[in-house]
Write a structure and sequence with these properties.
CATH topology of the largest domain in chain B: MetI-like fold
Strand content of chain A: under 5%
Helix content of chain B: over 70%
Largest interface: A-B, 116 and 117 residues
Radius of gyration of chain A: 25 Å
Order of helices and strands of chain A: EEHEEHHHHHHHHHH
Structural class of chain B: mainly alpha
CATH topology of the largest domain in chain A: MetI-like fold
Radius of gyration of chain B: 24 Å
CATH class of the largest domain in chain A: Mainly Alpha
Number of helices of chain A: 11
Number of helices of chain B: 12
Strand order of the largest sheet of chain A: 1-2
Strand content of chain B: under 5%
Oligomer: heterodimer
Order of helices and strands of chain B: HHHHHHHHHHHH
Chain lengths: ~325, ~290
Amino acid sequence: MLRSLNVGGRGGAVIPPAALVRRHRAWTDTAFRVVLTAMALLVVVVVVWMLVQLVAAAMPAIKRFGAAFLWTRRWDPVHDVFGSLTFAYGTVASSLLALLLAVPVSLGAAVYLVEIAPPAVSTALSFVIELLASIPSVILGLWGIFVMAPWLRRVVEPALASVFGWLPLFSGPTYGIGLLAGGVILAIMLLPIVSSVSREVIRAVPQSQREAAYALGATRWEMIRRAVLPYGRTGLIGAVILGLGRALGETMAVTMVIGNRPQISASLFQPAYTIAAALANEFSEATTDIYISALIELAAVLFVISLLVNAVARWLVWRVGAAPRGAL
Amino acid sequence: MTVAAVAPHHAARRRAADRVMTGLTAASTLIALVPLASVLIYVVVQGAGAVNWDFFTQLPKPVGETGGGMANAITGSLTLIGLASCVGVPIGVLGGLYLAELGNGPLGWWIRFTTDVLNGVPSIVIGVFVYTLMVVPMKRFSALAGGVALGIIMVPLVMRTTEELVRLVPASLREAALALGIPWWITAMRVVLRTAVVGILTAVMLSIARIGGETAPLLFTAFNNQYWQTRLDQPIASLTVQLYNYAIAPYDDWHRQAWAAALVLMSITLALNITARLVGGRRPGAGS
């Protein structure tokens, strides 16, 4: 009678009667459980393996330069002397600059889209902003070289220099290509990420918070500032740190506009160099073993930093969402 | 919240502050849209003037000769995506199934956490990892290495989305199947996964859009190639690496080709993202 079973909704999964035979259950279920667990554990294996492999390959450089690698400014492939300070500086400076530019805009946009905009507008604009996240980094870099950098050189940097030129930060010749360009392009890349996580965090604030604030006579802005943002603070900080993690490791667009000169300059208009950009530019051209090893040590440093930053960010964002999404 | 903060003093000033802040948040939203609009317009305008039939059918020309195309880079990118999917899809889907079906204990928590952390590892670092893992022992750049690097990037994207979608499958469906005496593994594969399959395909599509645009992990794994490639253990061209090389080169004709490549790449990426949105009702750039 039971020829086949039609289980499930659309299309219906037809299960042949052979599959129903009871004796399959014992060992096949166990085997399946092992396969699934192995697949999932593979992710942990890869991350640990990555750490071990990178540190092992960086060993010659670690042994030769020791901890001084971290604070040496000189990067001299000709004489095999390698220090990471200029790259670390470029990475941190461009990322902080990006956060400074992107966070207020992202938060503002998130607040507008969740609390203020009509639902239809909110859905449409959220989607459009997130499309920005899907544009490949190399295309943003191309746009950065030919559109953004000339605009910075002709419009933004002269304007900044004429107003704030007395600050070392905005002094010197304007190239367009430089630390400022790196920061701006990173900011553009962070916008969709920081604003989409912020949106989720703000959306997760219970309605009762809002109603309580309104019941006390708050205006909409007072409600947002005193009831919504403080409630979501942890998650919003998580969103920002998540953005930081993304900025630290972003490669192509930054490489294309930051100027790639290993130097530490007070001026934002000067070229700089990031860890990721150094890897992108020099890896396939590295000639000596110690040179490659030093580059791998750079990668290992970047990896460890990104692990820490992401772990903190995830923890903060998760705490707000209580459980990982969809855990109910 | 202090009562004073919302007491009915300075009503006019408070209303003004409300209006100003509403205006500022709306302005932020507009500012966020400007770069997207600018990128879209430039890529479409510059790309439309540069793209032609040769772009899809010809090999790159040597420096100095104008014309030529990126046919080998297009097939190269498709090859790399195919290889990456062989790594990323099975691990991602089955790992996601594990997280949803079995991952409620501490091990599940750690795997979920590691997956999210892997998602945040810079793609260039994954490139360096695969370089030490495959390129050094094989002593050459290869399509295989590029595929593995992209595959590793793909895993967390597919895995977390699969988990989310599998969790949305109603428990009653699973219980109905189990109550009929169907073994758990068949229930999981043919009832649970089957129900979530449209969403999972959408997630795979989005992850392909993402890795298709990756450049950094390919620079020293797949490297590049100016000719047709026929073997997977040889360097292979890709649209993104070619775009990068052309963009930073000092030749106008190469810049023109770079814009053409950008137009092709962006059209595909946006089309995949928008389709995924329409089919699966999911956000673009999922997994971030």
